Amino acid sequence: MAQRRHLGLGVIESRWFDERHHTVRPLFEFLSYALKDRPDAFTYERFVGAVSFREAAKFMMGAGDVEYLYIAAHGDFGKIETPDGSGLSRTFLRNTICEINRRRRRLKGVLFGSCKFGDANNLVEVLRPSKIRGQTANNRLIWAGGYGREIDYTRSSLFDIYFYDLFLRTNGQDEIARVESTVERLNKALPGLVDSLSLSIVAKLPNGKFRTITGNGATNE
After folding, report:
1. What's the DSSP call for residue 79?
2. Cα–Cα distance measured from residue 164 to residue 75, given in angstroms and rounded to the nearest whole number
């Protein structure tokens, strides 16, 4: 079987600062080179608000390449912040993910590269079933991760790249086992950093309950 040319990773990023142009894209190009020997083995889109985020996510999933999503933006305790002020609430994110995640190649995991939003309680809400046009929609997402407090942009961005580097090199296991193995390797390579960054990752089990793989908050619901 020919090796897949795409990492299965999609990056959606907002503008960070009005006066300066910052982007995580070169970091993922570096990761792409390291894993696929080419700079474009991932999908990248930008957004400025809720409407453009939904359109970017729909477009990204349309090609059938993306299994993992990285959302890079400022965050707060109840929402992802956006340059136009509209914000992405937990409900909006859950509904959007459920709506776009109906193709055969499913979106399995999402990591929020954002301050404060990624505590375990918010992540559980992102993983719950959704209501779309009055109908309950199954949420096919398996895990979600993020940071529960304010984090340093450079430090956390480099950490996220290392997370995906380890995760994408971990094969041959079920999805939750892959995440658990990745966290274990992170803790061995960078002792204490997972806790100091307040990283949380929550997985949805086959029975519909939730388990916190790392971090504090809601677990085993």
Report:
1. E
2. 20
Residues 52-103: tens digit of each pLDDT: 999 999 999 988 899 999 999 999 999 999 999 999 999 999 999 999 998 7
Q: With H, G, I as helix, E, B as strand and everything else as coil, classify residue 29.
A: helix
Whether residue 112 has pLDDT greater than 50: yes
| Cα–Cα distance, 141 to 159 (Å, whole number) | 22
- Under DSSP, the state recorded for 86 is -
Look at residue 1 in the predicted model and tell me its pLDDT. 34
Confidence of residue 137 (pLDDT cuts 50, 70, 90): confident
Structure tokens, 160:
């996220």
The SS3 assignment for 135 reads strand
90 secondary structure, DSSP code: H
Domains and CATH numbers, the chain: 9-214 (3.40.50.1460)
* 30 alpha-carbon distance from chain centroid: 18
Q: What is the separation of C-alpha 186 from the centre of its chain, rounded to a whole number of angstroms?
A: 17
Q: What is the mean pLDDT of the chain?
A: 91
